[in-house]
């Protein structure tokens, strides 16, 4: 069916209105009318072809929340009227080792992303949440807690799970000293989750002006990464670091913050990391690792946890036609702390 959307048409021009085709409902499909869609830095990377050539026109958006308006004949998990979400994944092979372990994001045959992905089953390219509606197989639809403000739930579908998953995987617990690097969409959720897990949370930021906010979000301390003296005082003291910086950067000053055997997990810079100093790793048996979003089961666990603990994102709701301005602000690290599009304005 013909659907109104907003798209990037090339790597340089502003996004603008566009019309896309959504497939007719297959037997296991859920038809979702989208209420809100968060704006992830990955949307901007994709719009600009930062990660290789994008398939234009591209409709970004993988922090989707809305209501079920129709279901296919064999859908059992959802019914019309349910509050639901869609994150970064809309399909995977469902039979490889990773899929068997509920780690569809590491599907050995390649998962289908919510946007700018080849749609192996139905052909064409997937289109994301900067649109009126979306059609998704029920296995990739999440149930959204009904006690939370819906606009502030949207970013949980990517920023939430991308920070939740590594904090859980590296078993962050009460008393650990955890550093969250970069206070943007991902970082602010990282602070909230690490705090909820009982950690002593240090916000590691380049922006002095964000310090007071970081404390309000739950950080116990703020460390200004541009100040080498401050950094030095924290050397060899962290149990875990979550690095959300969206571009390549010198990772060594951060690695030096880790204690013996501890790990810095990269989630931001999906590109070569220049000049990792072997000595910094070798001398304290330190680890550098990476993590990609999270599986569907884990995403549901995270959403349920947020419902129980009243955790949502801090959002600035925008109109669809304000997206280009939002991208410029995101590029300048001027987001508090996630833009969310109100799709009524499309
Ligand atoms: P964001 O809202 O723009 O936040 C990024 C923050 O990083 C900025 O607010 C800034 O924080 C800091 N920063 C920016 N440029 C920097 C630089 N040159 N040096 C040091 N710090 C810098 O972005 P986001 O939506 O949180 O996404 C972060 C990255 O994660 C993006 O690259 C995105 O594509 C990626 N991502 C990865 C996954 C995954 O599965 N691994 C999932 C979603 C997103 P301060 O002002 O506090 O320094
Ligand atoms: Zn994202």
Automatic annotation (TrEMBL):
A GO MF term: zinc ion binding
SMART domains in alphabetical order: PKS_ER (SM00829)
Record's keyword annotation contains Zinc: yes
PROSITE patterns per the UniProt record, alphabetical: ADH_ZINC, D_2_HYDROXYACID_DH_1
Cofactor(s) annotated in UniProt: Zn(2+)
Family, as annotated: Belongs to the zinc-containing alcohol dehydrogenase family.
Record protein name field: NAD(P)-dependent alcohol dehydrogenase
Lineage, highest ranks first: Bacteria, Pseudomonadati, Bacteroidota, Flavobacteriia, Flavobacteriales
């Amino acid at each position: 069916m013909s659907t109104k959307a907003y798209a990037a048409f090339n790597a340089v021009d502003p996004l603008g209105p566009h019309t896309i085709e959504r497939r007719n409902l297959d037997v296991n499909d859920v038809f979702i009318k989208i209420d809100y869609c968060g704006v992830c830095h990955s949307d901007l990377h994709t719009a600009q072809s930062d990660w290789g050539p994008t398939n234009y026109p591209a409709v970004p958006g993988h922090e989707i929340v809305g209501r079920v308006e129709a279901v296919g004949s064999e859908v059992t998990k959802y019914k019309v009227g349910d509050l639901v979400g869609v994150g970064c994944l809309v399909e995977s092979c469902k039979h490889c080792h990773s899929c068997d372990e509920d780690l569809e994001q590491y599907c050995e045959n390649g998962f289908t992303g919510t946007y700018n992905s080849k749609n192996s089953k139905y052909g064409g390219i997937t289109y994301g949440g900067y649109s009126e509606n979306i059609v998704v197989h029920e296995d990739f639809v999440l149930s959204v807690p009904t006690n939370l403000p819906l606009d502030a739930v949207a970013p949980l579908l990517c920023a939430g799970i991308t920070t939740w998953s590594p904090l859980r995987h590296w078993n962050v617990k009460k008393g650990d000293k955890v550093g969250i690097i970069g206070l943007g969409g991902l970082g602010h959720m990282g602070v909230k989750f690490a705090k909820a897990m009982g950690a002593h949370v240090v916000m590691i930021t380049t922006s002095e002006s964000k310090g007071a906010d970081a404390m309000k979000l739950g950080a116990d301390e703020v460390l200004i990464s541009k100040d080498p003296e401050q950094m030095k005082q924290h050397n060899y003291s962290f149990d875990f670091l979550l690095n959300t910086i969206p571009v390549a950067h010198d990772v060594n000053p951060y690695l030096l913050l880790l204690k013996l055997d501890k790990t810095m997990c990269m989630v931001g810079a999906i590109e070569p990391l220049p000049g990792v100093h072997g000595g910094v790793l070798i001398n304290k048996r330190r680890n550098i690792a990476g993590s990609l979003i999270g599986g569907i089961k884990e995403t549901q666990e995270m959403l349920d946890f947020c419902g129980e603990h009243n955790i949502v994102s801090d959002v600035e709701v925008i109109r669809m036609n304000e997206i280009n301005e939002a991208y410029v602000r995101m590029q300048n690290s001027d987001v508090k702390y996630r833009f969310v599009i109100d799709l009524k304005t499309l």
